[in-house]
Write a structure and sequence with these properties.
It is built from 10 helices and 23 strands. The chain is α/β, with parallel strands linked by helices. The strands form 5 sheets. An 8-stranded mixed beta sheet has the order 9-8-7-10-6-11-14-15, sandwiched between helices. Strands 3-2-1-4-5 form a 5-stranded parallel beta sheet. α1 runs parallel beside α3, α4 packs across α7 and α4 crosses α8. The longest helix has 14 residues. It is globular. The protein starts with a strand and ends in a 5-residue tail after the last strand.
Amino acid sequence: MDALILDMTHGGFIIAEKLAERGWSVACVDVYHNSTEECARRISGKGIRSLDKAPAEHFDVVMMPAHCPDAFIGDAVCDRRMTFSEAVGMLIEDDLPFRIEVTGVKGKTSTCYLVAHVLDSIGKKVFLHSSRGEGPYHVSHEVAALRSIAPPFILDLPREGYDVVISEVSLGGSGKADIAVITNLVDDYGIAKNTRKASGAKAQALTGKANIVREDEKGVWKALRPDARLTTYSDNCRVVGGQKLGEPLRIAFTYKEEQHQALLDGSYLSRQYLPSIDCALKVLETMDVPIGDVVRALESFRGVPGRGEVAAKDGCWRITERNPGISHVSIGMTMSSLKELGALDGCLVVVDPVSRKVCDKMDADKIREVLEGFGVQYVITSGKGEDVDVSGHPVVVTFIKEAWA
């Protein structure tokens, strides 16, 4: 079989190597022209052609990311097209540890961390692959490497030595996870130069086993995958009583049709984690984790590093959001949480538009519109690391968009 692989940046080289191991003839194209020479030498040493553009040749199949425009196929003639998610599903082994794949628009990383924290607390050996990096999760995440969350990197996750492997995926998934999660579809944004929608790519994560989606989005996923068995979650967590910034938050929720409460730590902006807790609770319920263990783990959770971190410094509350998914939508969610805490008076927001190795950029005009709607002062930096004077502000919120994907 002859395969044309488009896009080395988002893991095409991994698929190319797996196919070559199976005896395929493979050509791999660096369509974005930003892959490394080391990567090109690596695949060339395995008999894989490394090219700058698609050749005018015939191939049995072209494999490309769901977000990749068809124009990159060029003059090549291909009998069949496969997305990277479909290719991963074809290539993945069946005798792997229990696997959970989490995709969606918002809350992917938080959901992964919550599930990993609870499973680790009950003695499971957990490996976590997320936008913050990958490595074992034991008490906290031991990041051993920074790797993309594009679907092909699922193929490089551990095959043994762990009870559970949790993988955050940008668009799609293997379609063969034991539990597939689509956190939400807050914005069904356009991909492949607006020729396709994100929902179509994310639906490829759905598995023949357990699938967890939002109740109010069930119709979207059922229409795209009528055969999928869907378990739904909704807005389950409710705030009990009041809370001030930096203080614990008491929540009530339903778990296995019974009411329970938990006291969340004040070192992170727990209010904005509630949708992720809703989703994580359904995953844990599906795995039949005892409620006592769930409550204890929720109460010992300290948030994802850099995601809604709350700290007091020099008489000022500092909230840090360091996230590849920062957008006007996520900024609005954070500001809504702070408004509920009564923390907007005198608040200064600093937005760093740096976007390292990520496909989508922040929309500065929409961000300004959101922040002006909350009536706060704000600064959008040039992204060159300049200092911002934050003196005199009782609350400073810093948004930094970054990733290694």
